[in-house]
What does this fold into?
Amino acid sequence: MGKACVICNKSAIPGAKYKRRGQIKRTGGAGSKIVGKSLRRFLPNLQRIKINLQGTVRRVYVCTSCISAGKILKA
It folds into this structure.
């Protein structure tokens, strides 16, 4: 099981990294071309903190957007 936020269930999502060649049009080139594409994972900003979860204190992974939104109660 991978790491995920216990509040909003945010986890890693797949994506791609593009390798480009050529000068872009706005700087006087003919335009950049995609010459390679490799798979990667976009990871959420998870922090391992102690929270009060249903009356018990647990150390869990929570994303920073849930922490700043005030969705948790720190222990």
